[in-house]
Amino acid sequence: MKSDKNYSSTKDSLGPLFVIIAASLWGVDGIVLRPALYSLPVPLVVFVESTIVAILLSPYFIKQVPSLKTLQRKDWLAFFLVALLGGAIGTMAITKALFYVNFVNLSVVILLQKLQPVFAITLAGVFLKEKLPGQFFLWAVLAIIGAYFMTFGSNLPDFTTGDKTTIAALFALIAALAFSSSTVLSKRALRNVSFEMGTYLRFLFSALIMLVLVVSLGDISSITEITTKQIIIFLIIAFTTGGAAIFLYYFGLKRIAASIAAICELAFPLTAVLLEYFIRGNILDTVQWMGAGVLLLSILKVSLNQNQ
Question: What's the N-to-C CA distance of the chain in angstroms?
Answer without folding.
Answer: 21
